[in-house]
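Known limitations

Structure tokens in this collection are predictions and should be treated as such. Users comparing against experimental data should check residue numbering before alignment. To illustrate the layout, the record for Transpeptidase family protein is reproduced below. The input appears on top and the generated tokens appear beneath it.
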Amino acid sequence: MNIRTDILLRVYIAFGLIVLLAFAVLFKLFHVQISEGKKWRAMADSLSTKYVNVEAVRGNIYSVDGSLLATSIPEYELRMDMLAGGIEKNEVFYEKVDSLAEKMARFFGDKSRREYSSMLRQARKDGERWFLIKRNISHQELIEIKKFPIFNLGRYRGGLIVVQKNKRILPFKSLAARTIGYWNENVQPVGLEGAYGDFINGESGRQLMRRIAGGTWAPVNKDIEIAPKDGADIISTIDINMQDVAQNALLKQLIKSDADHGCVLLMEVSTGEIRAIANYTRTGEGEYKEKFNYAIAGNQDPGSTFKVASYMALLEDNLVDTNTLVETGTYKIPGHLIKDSHGSIGVVTVKKAFEESSNAAIAKLVNTAYKDNQSKFTDHLYDWHLNEKLGLQIPGEASPVIKNPEYKSWNKKMTLPQMAYGYEMQLTPLKMLTFYNAIANDGKYVAPIFVKEVKRLGTSIEKFQARVINDKICSDATLNKIQAMLEGVITEGTGKGIIYNPLYKVAGKTGTAQVADANKGYRVKRQYQASFCGYFPADNPKYSLIVVVNGPKKGYYAAQVAGPPFREIADKIYANDLEMYIPVQQRFVGNTKMPSSKAGYNKATQKVYKSLGIKTFFASNSELINTIDTNNGVAVKEVKLYPNAVPDVTGMGLKDAVFLLGNAGLKPVVKGSGKVVKQSLEPGSRLVKGHPISIELK
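Generated tokens:
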């Protein structure tokens, strides 16, 4: 093969390879564009544009009295389009940028005028279309910022872009904060915010965003493509005034007794609505904060407040009566001596033993009555659903623990007598309060509620009522005896002199319990829980209340530790609730004189009489009138005003008199108070502007 042929062969091979490669590239382009075109176009769109969720305005939470407990307020993020229509020309932007920088420096106070000017000029140079100016701007601040140079050119021309965010606030700050709770999709929901998040959160909107220089996402359109739907409002059962009273009383007592933590619960007897709930944990010397909801999640031995259930079982089974005699002081069981903390009071009636909170008495009574059939006692507790959750509207409720003889930890010789006075079980304060509430409610056992209603734009979506757990927890005979025993605790027993109030009756029970120190038991470190659970007024119960103080270091008896806050809360609620007072009979006497009014404006006077329920008929159409006789109805005379004449202000109050005289051009000189009985210038006489006029009021 000659050289020419060899060269041509190599050229043909190279050319063929190039042509083959070209065909391969064309085939791949065709495959990518036609066969996989849809896939890659979608990927390109996802890399340059995307839809993002726009947060809806969350609904409000209200107290039962209409006070706002939680709401969302707008906060704004300010950005700027440096190439907006109004500042597209350099001369417009650079003419005003220093003035804008001056305003921003004064308003925000975080940078100098020069720094702001340099920042804005650099953003303009870089052609920023989504430049961040400031975050966390309030609505009032935004109003002022819109008046700044350049920004005052308008929404589209000035380049100011306002991105609204929503900030959750509690107007009453710490009041019922734990019950109000919070909502976060990344953590366990808490309180009403968490439990009713589906209602409160609303429905998110959607906005199309595109990626711009620097990897920042900016909206494609000024308006949101799918507008968010605002959340619904929650009407809670909390009364903000009662909540304030409860929190202050509890906090005061925790500080006084140097306790570890405590809680208070106030419930309306007939409805089961929780009016106040407070929980405090010690965070430092004399400092307490709401960190844990002990009221619904704090499972512990209830102690002596549980004795009411033990006596109820005995009375219901006709094993004792209130006048049955029982020995107090000590009661020996295998491995343990049950003692009364106040010592023996001798042989007394069952009622007296309950009033003085004798541990030995109830332990002996229950153990003697049920030792051969121990499940008969626990069956009562299960029939009363004390072993079940209440099914609350807010999360976090602890599961109660009520043993029965089938439990592995059941000790045939020790468990029953110790359960009799509130040990070897786990109940929350709310569980205990609900049982006492049933006693106050004539035996009707209802589950407590925290939310009354859900509303959207003022229209009711859903209403809630308390669920009835048990229509009748015991017979009326037993109930009457238990109620009398609970009243006796206050008048004759452990609550005497501390909780007793001569103005209204209280029924309840003290409870002093020794609390186990985690897994170390009772003996390593003596810790106590002081509680008082009851209801008031005892003769017509409206509210049930429990106070629990854990780990007090200055005293531990329930009457001295839990009694004072119970008394303070009950006293203040009673003093402010007119429905609990004995109604005063109204008596009407013949020929009663109607209330008189000062001379004044016709419509205003009629409105006042109408509000008082007094029917009137004013024949006068004059703007001003004066009542002249109220013995038989309300009679009035017309007050006429004449141009350039001294007005008649007799019978008027000071405000109206001074207003008319001042408008007429006179200078009133006032003497006395009440309504005008004399004026120095004769009504209707010639008016001299600037002339003084004396008016006497009585």
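For this record: The chain is about 35% helix and 25% strand. Residues 52-236 form a domain with the Penicillin-binding protein 2a (Domain 2) fold (CATH 3.90.1310.10). Please report discrepancies through the issue tracker.
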